[in-house]
Write the C-alpha cells for this entry.
Amino acid sequence: MESVGLYVHFPFCATKCPYCDFYSAPGSASVMDAYTEAVINAIRLWQNKGTQFDTVYFGGGTPSLMGMRLVRIAAVLQNEPIREFTVECNPSRVQDGLFDALRAAGVDRISMGLQSAVDSERRALGRTADAETVLRRVQQARAAGFENISLDLMLGIPGQTPDSLAKSIDFCRDADVTHVSAYMLKIEPGTPFARMRQRLDLPDEDAVCDLYLQAVESLAAAGFAQYEISNFAKPGFAGRHNLKYWNDEEYVGIGPAAHSFADGKRFFYPRDTQAFLHGDPPVQDGKGGDFAEYAMLRLRLTDGLTQSGVQSRFGHPIPESVLQRAKTIPARYLQSDENGLRLTAEGFLLSNSIIAQLLADV
C-alpha cells in the first residue's frame, strides 16, 4: 500500500463557537487520557497492516487542549515517512512549552484560528483570544522552530467590511505566516448563529462575494498565491495533507466524525466519542475514487481538472460531454484549453452549480 494521509480528530473544546458545526464537546482529563490511548491503538492497527503515513493532520475541536498528550501520540508516528505534520492550535489554549514539545516530536506545521484581526469581530464569533494574543502565539511558534504557520480567516462574518477585512489580511502579511485559509461563513442548522440569524449584522450575498474577491486579490498582493477555493500559500507552502483530499488521494481518519478513503473505500466514525472509546468500528460509506468524484474535487483547485491528470488516473481524456458543457459557461467563470478546465476566482463563487452542470452527464 502506498503512503497515505492521516487525520486525527480531537473532539474537545472548552467552549463552543456559535458558528461551529464540527463535532466537539467539553472533555475531562480522564476522558482525554482514555482518548489518547484509543487514538494510539487505532494508529497501531493501521501500522500493523503495513500502512505508512506521509502526511499527518491533528484537527478538531481543539487539539491543543490535549496538551502534552499530543506528544505521546506523535511518538507513535516517529518512524513514518512524514513530509508534513500539522497540529491545529487555539491561540487561547496553548500550554506553556507545548510548541517546543511538538516541534521536538516531529510536528512541522501549526495552524491557528485568527478569523479576524478586529477584536469586535472576533468577540462576535465567540473567540476569547484577542489579535495581540494570536500574534504572540505566532511568535512563540516561530521561536520554537516552526517555519510553516497557517492562519484561518473568515469572510462574511458579523460586522465585517472591506476595511476590516483589509486589516485582517494586513495582519497575516505582517505576522509573516506562510499560509492563509479564508473561509466564507456558512450558517449551519442547529448552531446558535442559525437561531439568531435575523439578529446578526451579516453582509448581504453580494457583499460577501466582493469580500471574497477582495481577499483573493489582497492575499496575492501580500505574497499568498491561491491554490484552492479557500486556501492561499507562499511558494512551497501549500498544504500537503489537504491536497490529498482535493487530489482524491487516500487517507485514514481516526476519531468520531473522522472520514477515511482507503483501499478504494470510504468509511467514517459516527459523531460519538463514547462509541469510539468503546472500540466501535467505522461505518462503511461505499466506494470512492471514480471520475465524477475526482473531477469535483480537482475543480476546487486553481490547477483545475487537467487532461494529463485524468489520462494518468483513468486511462482516458476528459469526457467529451464535459468539454462540450464547458463551452457553454462564460470564460469569466471557467477557463478551458487543451490542458483542461479551471475555475476562475469568480467561478469559485459559483463552484457548486458550475461543477454540477459540467458533470451532469457523467
Notes: DSSP finds 15 helices and 15 strands in the chain.
